[in-house]
């Protein structure tokens, strides 16, 4: 399984970014986005069941972040709007073998290398 993230970068407060995660060799039914800021534990941001599209969004980003998928491209996205300095973190894409799309990162089996998002 290979998960490759892209789309991170530096943005001003209130700006937007869209992250992409291209999956290969993955046949599970749940993928998600997680983030980790320096000195903090990794936390769940948003998850999506595949292919039905049911989502779970963390309260801290609800109303600002949206997770979506392109089944044909085997890619999930994280649209991030109204970004805040506290959104600064390394963002990771992950997939799990199980079917429950939890926000708990310990339940995920496959991880990408991460993409940095900096908001200032």
Describe the secondary-structure layout.
Elements: E1 2-6, E2 9-11, E3 17-24, E4 30-36, E5 43-49, E6 55-57, E7 65-70, E8 75-80, E9 89-96, E10 110-111, E11 115-119
Parallel strand pairs: 2-11
Antiparallel strand pairs: 1-3, 3-8, 4-5, 4-9, 5-6, 7-8, 9-10, 9-11
Task: Explain what the structure shows.
There is one protein chain. The chain is mainly β. The chain contains no helices and 11 strands. The protein has strands at 2-6, 9-11, 17-24, 30-36, 43-49, 55-57, 65-70, 75-80, 89-96, 110-111, 115-119. Strands 2, 4, 5, 6, 9, 10 and 11 form a 7-stranded mixed sheet that branches. The radius of gyration is 13 Å and the shape is globular. The mean pLDDT is 96.
Q: Which class of secondary structure composition applies to the elements?
A: mainly beta
The radius of gyration over CA amounts to: 13 Å
Mean pLDDT: 96
The first-to-last residue Cα distance is 34 Å
Q: Report the sheet-strand fraction.
A: over 45%
How many strands appear in the DSSP assignment? 11
- Largest sheet report: 7 strands, mixed
Order of helices and strands: EEEEEEEEEEE
The parts where pLDDT drops under 50 for at least 5 residues are none
Number of helices: 0
Helix fraction?
under 10%
Note the overall shape. globular
């Amino acid at each position: 399984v290979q998960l490759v993230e892209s789309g991170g970068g530096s943005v001003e407060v209130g700006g937007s970014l869209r992250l992409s995660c291209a999956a290969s060799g993955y046949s599970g039914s749940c993928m998600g986005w997680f983030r980790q800021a320096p000195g903090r534990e990794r936390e769940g941001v948003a998850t999506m069941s595949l292919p039905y599209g049911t989502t779970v969004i963390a309260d801290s980003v609800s109303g600002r972040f949206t997770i979506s998928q392109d089944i044909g491209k085997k890619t999930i996205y994280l649209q991030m709007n109204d970004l805040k300095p506290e959104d600064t973190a390394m963002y990771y894409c992950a997939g799990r073998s199980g079917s429950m799309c939890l926000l708990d990162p310990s339940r995920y089996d496959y991880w990408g290398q991460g993409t940095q998002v900096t908001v200032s």
